[in-house]
Amino acid sequence: MTAPDPGAPRARRPAWRLLGWSALVVGTAVLLVWFGAQVVGAARRTFGFGAPSEPVITHQAVVERVRDVAKIVATEMTLRDVVIYEQTRFGSTKRALLVVTGKVSAGIDLTGRTDVRIDSAAKRISIGVPPAQVISVDVLNITTYDESAGLLNPFRPEDRDAIHRRIRTQLVLAARRSGLLEHADASTTRLLQELLGRDGYTVEVRRPVVQREPAG
């Protein structure tokens, strides 16, 4: 048996074989990834898997948005009116004529239970809300043009309180006759439709029928 010659060149390992196997493994992995992507894509197209879903508005989301609207004053009106106060006692009459300026605000109370109906298939939201009502009266200015009292019937503190009550009542009546509540209803409807009428939904605002004095 001949001993190997230490000076002879050693046989090199076939490095190309190792490179070939590596290329084969990488190529197989790429093929599997591509095939899997094709399968997933076909499943999405056929069954809708992974497709972006249509936005769905929930009952709770609508109620929360409606309650946010309840914090917003729908309409306010600044107006001026003449107030006359007369009171007779012991045959003596006291009288005051005043010109008052005030600001009346109107809106709807949505803090209670809200009737919300959602039809997701038809993309329709129906909301039942109460009619608008006066929520605040601010007296900005009072100018007294005439005030007279009888000898037996002077002005008392209770008269001043009665005058202020009459002022507030008359401002509310003037605001209602000017169409404040109707304007507040329309503003609330428009605000709710703008707030909830998204993603293709239509909004219907329902109110009970109430009789009001005609504006004007």
The total domain count is: 2
Tell me the strand order in the biggest sheet. 1-2-5
As residue ranges, the low-confidence spans are 8-36, 46-52
Order of helices and strands: HHEEEEEHHE
Largest sheet: 3 strands, antiparallel
Class per helix and strand makeup: alpha+beta
**Count of individual helical segments:** 4
Distance between the termini: 129 Å
Word description of this protein:
With 216 residues, the chain is of the alpha+beta class. The protein folds into 2 domains: 14-53; 59-206, no CATH class. Helix content is 38%, strand content 29%. It contains 4 helices and 6 strands. A 3-stranded antiparallel β-sheet has the order 1-2-5. A 3-stranded mixed β-sheet has the order 3-4-6, with helices on one face. A hairpin with a 2-residue loop joins strand 1 (75-89) and strand 2 (92-107). Helix 2 runs antiparallel to helix 4. The longest helix has 33 residues, at 15-47. The radius of gyration is 40 Å and the shape is rod-shaped. It starts with 14 loop residues before the first helix and ends in a 10-residue tail after the last strand. Residues 8-36 and 46-52 have low confidence and may be disordered.
List the helices and strands and how they pair.
Layout (H helix, E strand, L loop, with lengths): L14 H33 L11 H12 L4 E15 L2 E16 L7 E5 L4 E5 L4 E16 L8 H21 L2 H17 L5 E5 L10
Parallel strand pairs: 4-6
Antiparallel strand pairs: 1-2, 2-5, 3-4
Helix pairs in contact: 2-4
